[in-house]
Amino acid sequence: MKGTILHTPKNISFAKRIVKCLPQAIAKRLPAEISVVSVSTAESRALNRRYRKKNTATNVLSFRYSKEYGEILVCPAVIRAEAKAQGHSFEYQMTWMIVHGMLHLSGVHHEQSALAEKKFSRVEQEILEQFRNGPPRHHHRR
Q1: Binding site annotation covers 110?
Q2: Residue 104 labelled as part of a binding site
Q3: DSSP character at residue 78
Q4: CATH class in words for 5-133
Q5: What's the pLDDT tens digit per position in 92-124?
């Protein structure tokens, strides 16, 4: 998204590549600035208990504080365990969770219904596919 600033602990270009794969309608609704922050299992559990009333550590939480700023909190320990259980690489699973958080920050949610969950999952998979394959290439005739 034009104008979105991403702060990540290590690889900003990685997160910017994810944003480039988002559908324009979603990308334009992201906060102007996003931080991706790693949290421990204990921190994840405490935050999940406080904000979602679930007493377990979770893979990703997202918080939109304003039009200008949002955070995506990822728990690498949970994400690593899920990746192993699902037969994915850690990198793929982490990318998926950041995409998931970005969708929530843009106002897209899956909790309302089975249909919303299905649509959300489809959009996630389309974004991950584009991320894996790179941006579409345009061919020009000479």
Answers
A1: yes
A2: yes
A3: H
A4: alpha beta
A5: 899 999 999 999 898 876 666 677 677 767 887
